[in-house]
Predict the structure.
Amino acid sequence: MLERLNQAMDHIEDHLDQRIEVSDLARIAQTSEHHFRRLFSALAGIPLSEYVRRRRLTVAGAEVLAGERTLLDVAVRYGYGSGEAFARAFRAMHGVGPGEVRRVGASLQSQPRMSFRLIVEGSSSMRYRLVEKERFRVVGRKARVPLVHEGVNPAIAAFIRDIGQETSQRIRSLSDQEPEGIVSVSDNLDESRAEGTELDYYHGAVTCAVAPEDMDTLTVPAGTWAVFKSSGPFPQALQYLWRDVFTQWFPSNPYRSRPGPEILRTRLSEDAARADAELWIPVERTAV
């Protein structure tokens, strides 16, 4: 998988001055567009679109310094419709405008070209199982919240506090299948998975029951789920679990993620310092 992913990275590098289609990258990597975006952002730490933008502006910066093309020619070559749009993007990355660089020179920022390799440490194993589930519902309360990669998400924490114990108990009573009890469900995320982008967050229960009128419902189609277990400091262990699934498990197994909600079942210690968790990721088998 990583070899094919690196071939896709070569394609990006060879087409920085052309339109880059995610469908072409996914075809080279022999996976779906959805999984390619997820895998890239997990491995690279930034969204695919942001990496391409930074690489283009890095190469464009070198051309601005070289002085062989006009600034407008450089702008058009790297996909900007006007000199003004190029200047804004250039300044946002490099901290200085292209005209000033051309006149007096300047130190520029650089986004290095990326490639990926798998480091096998062998110090721990990842516990997982595969589950086939029929169509089900997530019933509970829903909020639109920003994505936070590390630390407690204050919007989610405030949302759960406002729900209250009585409503939480009503939600818990609806649970009639795995994962049991109250779960945290993330759905309708931005494709970039960038920090601060928004997602639908459900504080709910997995059930076949009809939702009460005062609660929100997410209907989830039948499919295969990979279920991962983790224990450790809260919330870091949970957030690292997401990262490890995409950087370690997927490159080593014949599965890819598919569109759908991601479900987290968490049990906190009495002091809320540690957590036992189950992470449910919708998956599909890839051709071997």
Summary: The first strand starts at residue 127 and ends at 133. The longest helix spans residues 48-66.
